Amino acid sequence: MNITKNAIMEDQSNISEVSVALAARSYTIYIGEHLTPQVIDYLKSQYAGKSLYILTDDIVCDLYAVALRAQLKQHGFEKCYLHAVPAGEKSKSVESYATCLSWLAANGARRDSLIIALGGGVVGDLAGFVAASYMRGIDFIQMPTTLLAQVDSSVGGKTAINIAEGKNLVGAFYQPKAVFCDSEVLKTLPEREMRAGYAEIYKYGLLWDAQFMAWLDDGHGAALLAHDQNDVHEAVKRCCEIKAEIVSEDEHEGGVRALLNLGHTFGHALEVLCAYDDRLRHGEAVAIGMCLAARFSVRLGLIAAYDAAHIEAHLKSVGLPTAYADITDAPAINVDDMLSVMAKDKKAHAKGINFIVLKALGTAFITAKYQEDDLKAVLQEFIG
Ligand code: NAD
Ligand code: GLY
């Protein structure tokens, strides 16, 4: 695969650097294996003498955070604090957010302190919002430990928590100062979480880069899920390049960034209907949502039925859910349930819901031009 779209530098230790170009808020994403020495060098050069606050979850805490803090202390960061929230989506809550703020204040965090988000998308979104709002904004870096977080949530500055009324309804656009994607940590990630991250990887191919999609179809998707290090590196790098290109053009989602929500309006509705519990991981919801977006695109005459079948077959082949029946213990719902939840999505607006649809494999666009009957027909077929 020949990647030329974004500026990339590789040094001798095979660390790729992708830059997110946002003027004064620009930053670098470092991608490689065993990145702790790079993290320490970076912190010594940028935050020497400052207090560090590692925010993590209780699973990642035992696996990596305790060791990271010990290493940082050894390297002279005496004031290095650690806080672990319970693992899982429920920690993206107002209560958990308040606990984090109190922990910072109780441990003397100041404007020149740094938050280190060490964990998956839950920790990254929560820590980012804490960083955005504590003392009106302090620095943070992302050390994503799930595949999903490395290819998507740690990049681009969307930070958020959930409230009872909906997912990610409270948050801010707030960019990290750097992102370190270390493939080594993915080796402890459960297979189900790897697959959930893979759904977001396939999303980038589908909406932006047919060549990348073909590369994934051609066995590299399955190989990266089996932890082929070259393929993991290549995929994380390509996704970060695409996201960097899109975010650099449209930081606040006024236009092209909305394409990154391919499958998400359907997916978020399914997450709500499954109460954000273990029945459906975010990436799994996105996988099903992309299949629905593809079927909707067929219904609108934009792509051929065999294109939608191709997407479904590929996602199924790597073990992702593609249909409502694939959700274990799925709640009994009807089309109106789906429609009413989708209408509350934060991407909905006064005139209705915009959908990201496909006009080819590798090309997506946003549309409001559809008949409600077409949407209902696709949902009815899906729910069965
Ligand atoms: P997650 O953070 O809940 O992590 C999944 C599970 O993996 C957790 O149990 C966690 O403890 C565990 N884990 C993390 N790293 C591990 C490791 N290296 N080894 C073993 N276990 C590990 O879930 P996620 O899928 O990373 O993130 C989902 C969240 O990301 C959702 O809240 C979603 O809304 C958000 N998201 C945000 C954006 C964005 O742009 N901000 C984009 C996509 C998704
Ligand atoms: N995950 C979608 C975005 O960052 O815009």
Which descriptors would you attach to this protein?
13 helices; 2 domains; 4-stranded mixed sheet; 4-stranded parallel sheet; binds nicotinamide-adenine-dinucleotide; binds glycine; Dehydroquinate synthase-like, alpha domain; alpha/beta; 384 residues; globular; Rossmann fold
List the helices and strands and how they pair.
Elements (H helix, E strand, L loop, with lengths): L7 E3 L5 E5 L6 E6 L3 H12 L4 E6 H17 L5 E6 L8 H13 L7 E6 L1 H13 L5 E6 L2 H7 L4 E6 L2 E8 L4 E5 L8 H18 L1 H16 L3 H21 L14 H10 L8 H18 L5 H13 L17 H9 L4 E2 L2 E2 L1 E6 L2 E5 L4 H12 L1
Parallel strand pairs: 3-10, 4-5, 4-6, 6-7
Antiparallel strand pairs: 1-2, 2-3, 8-9, 11-12, 13-14
Helix pairs in contact: 3-4, 5-6, 5-8, 6-7, 6-8, 6-10, 7-8, 9-10, 9-12, 10-11, 10-13
Bound molecules: nicotinamide-adenine-dinucleotide and glycine.
The site of nicotinamide-adenine-dinucleotide has 31 residues, from α2, α4, α5, α6 and α10.
